[in-house]
């Protein structure tokens, strides 16, 4: 679409928005001066885009019926096969619906994006197919990935596979439910505040948030560049390590990938924990909403590691209790500037931009009433703060995140892993459709106390199931040095093999 030079009236309005004083003659002069820039934009628009080719053929698939989708975990079902052989041969994989799959609809949990069909595959999609995996479809996620609960998506709530009517966790809600319910072998989730580990904990699966930048985010709708992560969610530790091995490493697009170190993750599986040092994080327990059986389950898991031959000792990182507060301005800014003002991508970085999504997503400006209550809250807060005080809180929060990272690094110089409950709570009941706005938002935000720290420190962190209480899983979180996913897999697999987690 050709962009016209602004009319006199349009430029007058823009000047007023900028608090810029212009005479009528000034406006006409600036209209003439703008012609060259507008012409360049139209020239760029006329050029073909520079996007990677789609490697594997596919059909768009179908949206399953309610009968075919009892947990409401699926958005679209497909069957896209890749290489004839490879480490993921025979494995079915679901993709969180913020991940682009060429030719298959994507809505990122929001009615305002429904109808969009990307023309590119995310890097992780191509790598899964190159490794012989089968893409089984797109999993529902929460509205624009802004919830730790599983009730905010436009297509309705996603149910916990262990207890219907309870949260599956978010924002990778469908990914957790489908793996936990045995409908797929593996899934890819996203994590900006805990959104892999929360559904992993609630659904009783293994969910790894890798080291920042280890897995390329290319072709995934971003939330905020500083905290964007994607990673594997699986029913076994070996599957998790195998999937990570297939998708990790630089791709030449993602600017988040600086100094990336990859390992043979599968080789870490099968080793015992004798000689490992595990730090039990004191501040990971006893939050205002901590459930006693969750804390007890995590402490029992720590004792179990000790019985397996690990050295286990309690440590303190007082600043861990500030992690949520530090993350808040980072997320507020990111959601406003990247997801909203920046048309779903933002700018200012050497990335792969999918302009078709940016164009389609602009419709949110006329349809913001259709946002979830959580989305409206983030939009209102981000706009208010930016207009009143600008971005200074964002800048200070990023600086403080480095201090928190240093505190974790100091502990991890002495220990191999930091252990804590993944969440303070087990899965809570899904809010009723007529629940108050406060309840809707509370259920979306009640579980981040422990998970958010690793998103802003960028350490790898994994939730592993460590028990079943009242029919609901409890998650145990293991955090390691940057790029030391092998230590997590070593400990997680030893724990997994030692006893059935449902009997712990």
Walk me through this protein's architecture.
This protein is 37% helix and 14% strand. It has helices at 8-17, 24-46, 123-130, 173-180, 197-203, 237-247, 265-268, 292-307, 323-341, 355-361, 364-367, 373-389, 392-414, 437-445, 452-457, 485-498; strands spanning 74-81, 92-96, 134-139, 159-160, 163-167, 186-190, 206-209, 230-234, 277-281, 311-315, 417-421, 461-469, 472-479. It has an 11-stranded mixed β-sheet. Helix 4 runs parallel beside helix 5 (197-203) and helix 9 crosses helix 12 (373-389). The model has no long low-confidence stretch (mean pLDDT 97).
Low-confidence stretches: none
| CATH architecture descriptor of the largest domain | Alpha-Beta Complex
Order of helices and strands: HHEEHEEEHEHEEHHEHEHHHHHEHHEEH
State the end-to-end CA separation: 61 Å
For the largest beta sheet, what order do the strands appear in spatially? 1-3-2-6-8-7-12-13-11-9-10
Number-wise, the strands total: 13
CATH homologous group name of the largest domain:
Amidase signature (AS) domain
The CATH class assignment of the largest domain is Alpha Beta
Strand fraction:
5-15%
Please state the structural category. alpha/beta
Oligomerization category of the chains in this entry = single chain
- Main sheet: strands, sense, barrel: 11 strands, mixed
**CATH fold title of the largest domain:** Amidase signature (AS) enzymes
> What is the residue-averaged pLDDT?
97
> Please, how many domains?
2
């Amino acid at each position: 679409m050709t962009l016209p030079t602004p009319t006199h009236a349009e430029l007058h309005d823009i000047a007023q928005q900028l608090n810029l004083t212009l005479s009528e003659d000034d406006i006409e002069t600036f209209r003439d001066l703008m012609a060259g820039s507008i012409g360049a934009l139209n020239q760029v628009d006329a050029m073909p885009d520079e996007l990677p080719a789609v490697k594997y053929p596919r059909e768009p698939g179908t949206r399953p019926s309610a009968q075919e989708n009892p947990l409401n975990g699926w958005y679209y079902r497909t069957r896209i096969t890749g290489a004839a052989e490879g480490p993921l041969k025979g494995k079915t994989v679901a993709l969180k619906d913020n991940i682009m799959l060429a030719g298959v609809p994507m809505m990122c949990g929001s009615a305002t994006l429904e109808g969009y069909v990307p023309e590119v595959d995310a890097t992780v999609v191509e790598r899964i197919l190159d490794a012989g995996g089968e893409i089984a479809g797109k999993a529902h996620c929460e509205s624009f990935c802004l919830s730790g609960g599983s009730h905010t998506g436009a297509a309705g709530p996603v149910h916990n596979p262990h207890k219907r009517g309870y949260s599956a966790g978010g924002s990778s809600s469908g990914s957790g439910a489908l793996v936990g319910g045995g409908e797929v072998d593996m899934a890819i989730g996203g994590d900006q505040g805990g959104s892999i580990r929360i559904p992993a904990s609630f659904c009783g699966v293994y969910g790894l948030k890798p080291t920042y930048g280890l897995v390329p985010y290319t072709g995934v709708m971003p939330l905020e560049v500083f905290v964007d992560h994607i990673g594997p969610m699986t029913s076994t530790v070996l599957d998790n390590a195998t999937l990570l091995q297939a998708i990790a490493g630089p791709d030449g697009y993602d600017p988040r990938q600086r100094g990336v170190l990859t390992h043979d993750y599968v080789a870490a599986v099968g080793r015992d924990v004798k000689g490992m040092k595990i730090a039990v994080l004191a501040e990971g327990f006893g939050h205002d909403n901590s459930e006693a059986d969750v804390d007890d389950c995590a402490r029992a898991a720590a004792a179990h590691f000790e019985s397996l031959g690990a050295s286990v000792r309690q440590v303190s990182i007082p600043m861990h209790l500030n992690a949520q507060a530090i993350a808040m301005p980072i997320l507020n800014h990111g959601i406003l500037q990247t997801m909203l003002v920046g048309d779903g991508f933002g700018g200012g970085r050497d990335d792969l931009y999918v302009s078709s999504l940016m164009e389609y997503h602009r419709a949110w400006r006329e349809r913001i009433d259709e946002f979830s209550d959580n989305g409206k809250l983030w939009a209102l807060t981000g706009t208010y703060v930016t207009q009143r005080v600008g971005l200074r809180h964002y800048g200070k929060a990023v600086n403080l995140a480095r201090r928190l990272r240093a505190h974790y690094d100091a502990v991890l110089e002495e220990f191999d892993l930091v252990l804590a409950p993944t969440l303070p709570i087990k899965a809570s009941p899904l809010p009723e459709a007529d629940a108050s706005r406060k309840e809707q938002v509370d259920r979306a935000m009640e579980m981040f106390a422990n998970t958010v720290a690793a998103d802003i420190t960028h350490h790898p962190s994994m939730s592993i199931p460590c028990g079943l209480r009242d029919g609901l899983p409890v998650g145990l979180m293991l955090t390691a040095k940057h790029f030391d996913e092998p230590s997590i897999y070593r400990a997680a697999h030893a724990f997994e093999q030692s006893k059935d987690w449902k009997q712990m």
